[in-house]
Amino acid sequence: MPLWKYSEALLNAVTANTVGTPFNVDGASGLKVYLKSASVSTGADIVVYEKSPEGDWHEVHRESVSTNGNQDPIYLPGPFDDVRIDVENHTDGTYTASAQAL
Fold it and tell me: How far is CA 27 from CA 5, 66, 82, 86, in A?
């Protein structure tokens, strides 16, 4: 049995400010986010949001990315139901993100 209940690619080679697609993780007790960047000189912020019971989105983590390659995984304790990953303050670069939920 795999350790993670859910695994999803959330951003694929994004080159501008982007609101990510929501990812339902059904009460997951934790989230691991993987980031990959390319062609970065100045960078962007990669932001993880969680949806509240009222339906609005709240920031739970912000990572400034200013280097190329695979970034260190981000571990976030839950519980989570709906999450999304956005690219904000984009100046340059291409960003890819995926997440796994326990």
Answer: 10, 32, 8, 21
